[in-house]
Amino acid sequence: MDSPETQTIVPVQEIMQRDVRTTTPARPVPEVAQLLIDENLTGIPVVDASGVLVGVVTEYDIVSKRGELVGDIMSRGVITVTDDTSAARVVELVGLHGIRGIPVLHDGALVGLITRADLVRLYLSLRWRCSACGHEERGVSAPRSCSSCGGSSFTLIRE
Q: What is the value of pTM for the model shown?
């Protein structure tokens, strides 16, 4: 049986969205605003002509900043993860920075996007069974201790 530390590793590549809408810095802001509304998105990655991630444009950028082009208003200090980053680490980043989606890179190239909704789906698919008493708890990572008996060894059950 794995230790709780090794059981917490569900790599982002297992749960990320692979078909990611992107835009360019030269795209007019109203077009991107309409895209966000039409596709029920909260933001999309911005890539340059060679496909390199250069920023993200979000609903907040659109309503709070002034500019005609995406490049004028996009957020440039983008938090990213690699496709082998654990989902538990993504939960930490989302909580720390209050962001809704994180671009996923592989060898520097954009390969996906992980959102809060992806993390909620993962939460629903994982249960941790206490090895001592059998009590089960849901979570993206193993509990530190069993809320029923205080045990510290768990088995991961994936649905």
A: 0.85
